[in-house]
Design a protein that fits this description.
The chain contains nine helices and twelve strands. By secondary structure, it is α/β, with parallel strands linked by helices. Strands 2-1-3-4-5 form a five-stranded mixed beta sheet. The chain has a five-stranded mixed beta sheet with strand order 9-10-6-12-11. The N terminus is likely disordered.
Amino acid sequence: MFLPLYLFAQGNQARQPNVMVVPFVEPGEGENDRLKDAVLNDEAVPLAMSKIKEEFNLRNFKTIDFLTEFQRVQNRAYAASAINSKSTGLQSYVDGARADIYVTVKVTKEDFPSGASSVTLLMEAKERETGFSLANASIVSDRFRASKKELTEYALEGISENFFNQLKQAFRDMVNNGREVNVVLNVDENCEFDMESDVVGTQDMTLSDELDEWVLENAFRGNGEVRSGGNGLNVYMRVPVYDPDTGRPRSIKSETGKLRRFVNGLLKEKGFMVSEKAASGQYIQLLIQNTKE
């Protein structure tokens, strides 16, 4: 029996994750143009997205309609100036709609010398916060003398329960074990702080030792470790998908923000501070600097 994903969340108040089916586009420069082309100029892609969304609905998943979100963005007053900006790439649609899981759909057509063609339908489900792959499937249609749209309809008949079972299991594992994040702490080249020898806090321990204890206490189910390497530290830890007490969703940023504030508290009286230098999914880079005067 296929159970809704929210039943695997911790706490009675955990909401059901939102699923958004989106077109696959290569990231980078021109991403939004490729996105518009897939939605507006390729009949097979919206067809596949609509059918896959329907399959999720039939299995009691809560879904967000990408085409509605796409049209909403196009209709904004500032769309004319913003539509070609980087902020309107695929990830911004997913983030803006607050999708918890997004499923990319790619449809490619192959022509053969006989005049027949086939399409390959690729699906991959990812968690929005980390981009972690939860499930994937590849379906190849039979060969026919037909349009890409017609061949896609044939391919869509081959969607199996295995894809949805993969997603269910992977999400359940993530809820039970937490998301894995990697926080890297480096020292600015103009900063005099020495991770290997300088002591911080009230217990006169190195930053590495302090973080060892903090991670043990704060990582999800105590699952984490700190690795030292010269004047840098790598913190690997699990953070919850849902708050263990309230069942409400937790973001990676809210969890790693606790670590940053803890480190800042240790360094403040020593004349140093830590700030976020970069963040991408579960990878966060922090930089220790001299306190700005």
